[in-house]
Structure formats: C-alpha cells, structure tokens
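2024-03-11 09:14:02 DEBUG pipeline.ingest accepted 1 chain
2024-03-11 09:14:02 DEBUG pipeline.ingest length=309
2024-03-11 09:14:03 DEBUG pipeline.predict start
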Amino acid sequence: MAFFLETLLGGLMAGMLYSLVALGFVLIFKASGVFNFAQGAMVLFAALAMARLSEWIPQWTGLQNKVAAEVLAFMLAGVLMFIVAWLVEQLVLRHLVNQEGATLLMATLGIAYFLEGLGQTMFGSSIYKIDIGMPKDPIFVLDKVFQGGILINKEDLYAALIAAVLVMLLSLFFQKTGTGRALRAVADDHQAAQSIGIPLGRIWVIVWCVAGVVALVAGMIWGSKLGVQFSLATVALRALPVVILGGLTSVPGAIIGGLIIGVGEKLSEVYIGPMVGGGIEIWFAYVLALGVLLIRPQGLFGEKIIDRV
C-alpha cells in the first residue's frame, strides 16, 4: 500500500506540471480558436532567457545575492515574454483576423521555428542550469502509518505546489474577471465579439502575455528538473494528450486531464510495464487520448459542437 501511494503521489505531482503546460494550449485556443504549436518553443525560449539572465545579471550589475539575481532574472524574462507576445500580435495575428483556422495554425508553426532560432541566437545552444533554490533531497512522510514511510521528492512537491497555485489563479481569472469573459466571447466568435465592442487585438495580446508567463513558469520548473536544452521544447508534446483528454476549451479539463495522465503514466509503468516489456510510460498517454477521441472527440470536459443546417 505504501508503494502504491508513493507512485500515486508521484503521478499527481507530475500531472500538475503537465496541466501547467497544457494550460498554455488552452489559453491560446480559447482566444483564437487555433491550436498553438508554438507553446513548446515558448517554454524553451522562456527557460533559456531565465537561465542565461541569471548568469549575466551578476556580471552586469555585480549583484552577489543569488536569490535577488534569480528574482530579477525572472522579472526580466517575464518582460521579455510580454514583448514577444506583443510582437506576435502586432506582426502576425493582427493581419490574420477572421482568417481560416488552418492559416492561424501555420502561423503558430512559423512562430515556433522563429522562437527556437531566436533563442539559439540570443542565448546559445548549450545545456544550461536553472537553480531556483528548490530542495532536491527526498523526504519520508507517514512513517508512523506505513513501515518505512512514503518517499517524496521535495523538488517535485515544490514544483507541483507552484503549478497548482498558478493553475488556480488562472482558473479564477477566466471565471471571475471581465477580461476572462471577453476572452471566452472572442473564442466563440471573433466577428460577433468585435461587433459588441470587444477589442480583438488587445484580447490576443493579453492572452499571449498570460501564455508567455505560463511558459516561463513551466520552463523554469522543467529547466530546474531537467536542465535547459533544446529538447525541452518536446515537453509540450507530453501535454498534447492532456489537452485532448480534457478538452481544448476547458481550463478544468486541462487540470484534471493532467492529473489523470500523470497518475496513469506512473501506475502503468510500475504495474503494467513489467508485463509488456517496459516503456509504457512513453506511449500510455497517447493511447489513452486516442481512446477518448474515439468515444468523445471534444474531450471529457470540452464543449460539444452542434452544427445546425
């Protein structure tokens, strides 16, 4: 039982990180109605900015306080992501208002390749480290209930808590603010939203800025765990099954979908993996997402599309 709980908790903590990356996809889709293939590149670009700025700031300013340098690097990386979001809206999206979804999809692919190349040009292509002070030593809990206790990685726990707080704040933003309601209106119909006075350009800038902050936090966490390298862009691919499972239009779906995928991967690898030769953690999420697509194409929490003729 202790081992099962240990695996379950590990899956829940990994699932929160998947949910955080998946939220970036949901944010852009709700605002523009297009799947944002640039989200992985945004995570990579933000992580590169955070890692390199934390190295450069002490050299530029002579600041010796490591915590202050990391905080300043995070703030500057956030400003940089805001600038990137503004440029994307000004140079790309503004000229594609009311265009076909396929056109917007190709635009996000172009943005992805551009950001990857720009990140390599600005920050280099080596492997970098982000140290945000999260403890890496494991701890044992419930040792009075279970013999030997349950082993929990402190870094995973802190990362999951950070992701959970950000996910909660974003959920409140969508549900309780006027901007969140305007964003949902834009997602339903661009032309109708414009006709009642909702400024489409401003909404797109806001949502890309929020998605940039989400990418920064996700890049910071994943970079701290895995190191900042160009393979970090593929982390977003791990969130694709989460979005499919939860639904492209549902913030709660991204959260619950991430938890389901995280727990499913860990449990399947431990209990089913030995029977099928291992490696199930790599493809389990995609098989689960495919099964959901066959039964409920809009996802577990997505809005059902009804076409009237």
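2024-03-11 09:14:41 DEBUG pipeline.report DSSP finds eleven helices and two strands in the chain.
2024-03-11 09:14:41 DEBUG pipeline.predict end
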